[in-house]
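Q: What would this complex look like in 3D?
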Amino acid sequence: MLRQIWIVSALNFRSLKSRFWQSMVIVVGLAATVGVMLSMLSVSTGMRQAYYASGDPNRAIVVTKGVEQEPQSSITRAQAPLIAVAPGIAKDKDGKPLADRALMTSVPLLRKDGSKGFTTMRGLSEKGLGVRPEIKIAAGRMFQAGRRELIAGVGAQMMFRHMQIGDKVILPDGEWPIVGIYKTGDQLEGQLLGDTETLVTALHKPVYTTMLVRLASPASLDTFKKALTVNPALSVDVVRHSDWYKRVGDQNTFALALLGYVVGTVMAIGALFGCLNTMYSAVSNRGREIATLRALGYGAFPVAVSVILEAMLLSITGALIGAAIAWALYDGKLDLFGNVVFHLSVSPAQIELGVIWAAAVAMVGGLFPSIRAAKRPVVEALRAV
Amino acid sequence: MKYFPLVWASIMRKPTRAILTLLSVMLAFTLFGLTIGMNATFAKVKEDARDDRMFVFARFGSAVPIALERQIESMPGVERVASSSVIGGYIQDPKNRTFVVMMDENIPKVFPEYPITPQQWQLIHNDRQGVLVSQMQAERWHLKVGDTVVIVSPAVKKLDGSNSWTFKVAAVTPDMAIFGQGYMFGNYDYMDKARVLSDQGKTGQFRVKVREASKTPEITEQIINRYANSSTPLDSITEKVAFDVSTGTGMDIASVDRDVALAGMFMVLFLTANGLAQAVRERFAEFATLKTIGFSDNGVIALVFAEAALPCVLGAGLGIGLAAVISNVMPHFLPPGQGLPIPTMTVMVFVWAFLSAALVAFMSAGLPALRLKQMDIATALSGR
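A: Here is my prediction, written as structure tokens for the whole assembly.
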């Protein structure tokens, strides 16, 4: 049986050359479908990855009860110390809890093309680096607590003007110099960092935004959470940092991903009709060969399978071409959406998705023609020649 | 027109092929309709936006004191200032996200184009808890006039410690292009008086109407300079810029849309060109017969073009129709609060679709036409 499938398929593939342009309909159709879908998904995937990478299972974020995005949260100055002394937080060498009072605000900046854009400015308190060890200075130096200076992420530096060391950012109390450039490998790279308390004064903000703590161990989340939720002075949600960013990432990229899939589906259905078209005419062109094989004793099943295999070969080739184009054009490219700086991504998982998409199209697009090929009475087919 | 039966017969020679081609073309044009229709929505929003109106907001993302409203209004060249704040939250379940824009009494004067009558504005003025709900939002949350709706807003706290904001539906009003997911308008006074003390007297942003659009840049600069050293430095952006989709997202979505539509067209071009070339090859002898009985070169080519154009134009029409249907039902299937811009099938979308269809047909007919022109009738008739 397998041998028969192999022989029939080999025969088909060898005759592909004579049906080159017609077969290209499937290849081009799937290349366009998968290329477009993966290009669109590169935005949502890249953005989601940037969010996911920002989370850490060893950290917990404390936000106002019920809020869904960090900027909506507010932690008062009275609440912050209560949170910092709760059990479950890892301690620094000096015995102090690794808790960071974070402040977030958006700053208007000029994009590289001169248009107006915004990014997030984040305040780190004295234990900030202990909580977020992923912040590495790539050039210049760290800002000093109490001084009006900032450090800029490598992403921000690439997306916005005036982000070099020595450049100044206008804040309410004057110009703050950028003294360093940092890397984190996540979404924080698109932001600016400064000292929380100095920013609080400059921005006249009476409250912090969130608290981020390093947990003593991933399992101590429950202890920490319980301590905070039973405290009547606090009305907060405690979420594992990785879970928080997973939710925020999914939520903020949902519409974009949906758009990609809708476009991908519509195009795939269009390509499917093209595939059906090509395979039907391939089957009818090869009526004589198929009938001859059947007369020689080949079964209907190998003939049917060979038709599907041919459709598969063509559409997966197309999908790989499309994926390769999307990958070459977009993978790794730095981009900005809203105020999130991230790298576009055409990951192996996305390419796999494209191939699955193509295989599905080929399956359906090959199935009906294959049934026709297999069912056609041998005698009639031979007579028609 | 009298050749229509001939063209029709040629197409229907292979009904499966004809139908599959038509469906394929239709799908590509559905995509075309959705993407170019989305661009039409962006264009409409931008067109409705005005150069003589701007947003004025806190430069570093906090609330602005409402007292500045009168100060800005007294600046030379400024006609009127209104303010709006947003209560963002959800209805019952955090998944049901929505928002209410809390408007002050000047909003109707700054936005005379809103499809809301003075009587309707008066309703929320008389009853501070009143809310104007757009058709789309009313359908989504099953609201009618007189209903009570509670918005839970984690970010906006009330004086009594809760964050549930109760509204009464005062009227259901028509939708607007700029609020793609519909809107709800409430009364700013309700929000201000019920809020925690530290937040009272503050608003989200000002909407400034200037007397002459040409003076907008100057006035913007004056406003920014005047408050640069205050406790709330301000920033400003004109409606035209703010409502440009690339401003909000930093991405040129319109050109992405065009590229997607183009990819679809490329797919269709390949498909029709191939199908047509095949059909002409199969019926080569028949075309020779047509020429023999007196059809001119151009006559035959016109027939081939018509054979390509018919499925393209028909497919374009059906595709845009399907896109229109999808655009109409789309809002009902999206999870609330997760906005995708809803495409609009404007006349321009139809025009572009038909032009593209004609171009695809024209390009598909190119090569076969050349072959027919150069054919040697005797050879073709002999079937060699």
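A: To summarize the key features: Chain A has a mean pLDDT of 89. Chain A touches chain B through 58 residues (CB under 8 Å).
Q: Very helpful, thank you.
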